[in-house]
Design a protein that fits this description.
Radius of gyration: 22 Å
Helix content: 25-40%
Number of helices: 12
Structural class: alpha/beta
Order of helices and strands: HEHEEHEHEHEHEEHEHEHEEHHEEEEEEH
Length: about 375
Amino acid sequence: MNLENHILNSIKTPCYICYEELLENNLKLLDYVQKKSGAKIILALKGFAMWSTFPLVSKYLHGCTASGLYEARLAHEEFKKEVHTYSLAFKDEEIDEIAKISNHIVFNSPNQLLKYAQRVKNINPNISISLRINPEHSVSPEEIYNPCGIYSRLGTTIKNFDEAVLEHIDGLNFHALCEQGADKLEEVLIVFEENFAKYFKNLKYINFGGGHHITKEGYDVDKLIKLIKKFKIKYDVEVYLEPGEAVGWQTGVLVSSVLDIVDNQMKIAILDTSAEAHMPDTLAMPYRAEVDGASVANDKKYTYRLTGNTCLAGDIMGNYSFDEALKIGDKVIFLDQIHYTFVKSTTFNGIKLPSLAIINKENKLKIIKNFGYKEYKNRLS
């Protein structure tokens, strides 16, 4: 992801930059999976919701999966294809609008499904209804992201499955993965089928959820295609996948600037971005965000601790080494910062939200949106 100097120098930081060509490369791979397997792939907005790219994304994917009313509205208004809406618990004052704009509605529990099934059908007779299942097979690398972990509230276990839902449902959903390969999906499918296959007879579709790391180098795409085709033939159902991260994976950067450099037993660079506010998964996962041109501490000549510009003591990206000494005003580029970043960004501590930008196929930078004081103030009262 080489940023030419004249582009880099023109950027007012902080700024997320999505590369249109890299995004389309991911979409082409996902479309290949669709065409070879017969599955339908929809975009999980929780991971990537840069709606200025939807004209491109919608050329390849069948729609969006939303986690509530606002995401459903965004999908309906801007993506304009299939809208699948899931919520852990729908609210009475929102369910009617959700039903109007959704093609599929996914309930988290038999209790919610039986409460609202007839109501949503009365509002939208064409809406499909499904229930989210918890296959109770844990393969997630981190417990905080494990939808099938102990005491999970996500989905219905076999013990809590109520056969009264069968007369209402068109499909079943499960989501059990997090940044994982086709081999882990195969593990989950074995357990899922053992427990729930007896309920597949009259279903129209099964949704395999998200967490499929399809666009990561080394992912076994052929195995995924074989698993999907085998499942479709075996049960005569449509198959959906709903990745978010796989769409935005390795498609862009977060550019920041060095505001100051202090010394407290090591050199500490203070940036105009924030791990807490702009890259929250680096602290929650946790994981180390890679920096363009940098290496691990002490590998190169100059080592710095890169830190955010909030008052949180732990607002730290990590220790990195560089070939050249950092100077105030230098740009620091964090790689792979398009998925699960701006969708989670906050104005904590009054820090400015990063701008959103795209570099098109002609290598031209376009600023899509700038943020300022009003975004901070309008969230408060």
